[in-house]
């Protein structure tokens, strides 16, 4: 497995963790202080919180995950392009 593929798979796992957190946030009965939900909260909240402070929820809708996904996509693209250019 190449470094490029490893980094690409790491980003896919991160995307899935963030998506799972977003989908689970629609269920109000989840206790975010018990496992496995605590892991999701501990992993994602440090990323979501700064964006949530910049763009507070409007009308009960939190737009910070959209910004996080845009930022994550740009970061993934830049990092993979750098790794690809180094490996070629």
Q: Which value, in Å, is the CA radius of gyration?
A: 15 Å
Number of strands: 0
Instruction: Count up the domains.
Output: 1
Q: Strand percentage, roughly?
A: under 5%
Short descriptors:
mainly alpha
Overview of this protein structure:
By secondary structure, this protein is mainly alpha-helical. It has one domain (3-87). Helix content is 73%, strand content 0%. It contains three helices and no strands. It has helices spanning 3-24, 37-54, 64-87.
Write the layout of secondary structure elements.
Layout: H1 3-24, H2 37-54, H3 64-87
Helix pairs in contact: 1-2, 1-3, 2-3
Short description:
Helix content is 73%, strand content 0%. It has 88 residues and is mainly α. The radius of gyration is 15 Å and the shape is globular.
